[in-house]
Amino acid sequence: MPGFPDHMSDKTDGPGSDASLLTKTRTRTQRPPMYKVMLLNDDYTPMEFVVHILERFFGLTHAQAFEIMLTVHKKGLAVVGVFSFEVAETKVAQVMDFARRHQHPLQCTMEKE
3-state DSSP helix/strand/coil percent for the chain, to nearest 5? Predict the structure, then answer.
């Protein structure tokens, strides 16, 4: 159109036009990988200590903690939660540190889900 700069004309098929905006795809944010935190059974850590760990560091009720403790005891290990990498890493470190300070050989690990 005479008298108007190119960007104000009513063209609809150029690279800066509204028509080209409709064909652009959106990129989706990918969810971060999740990690399972697991407790491993041993023959020395008292069951009550394991229940305490589950209540304190994983926010479980006494009944939930008791059930998971029994699973660890009977099956050798149990998943106690699934978290982002940073949260899982922190929980493993907290449990291991707490167990060592109380002189228990309890093992807590994490693996990618």
Answer: 45, 20, 35
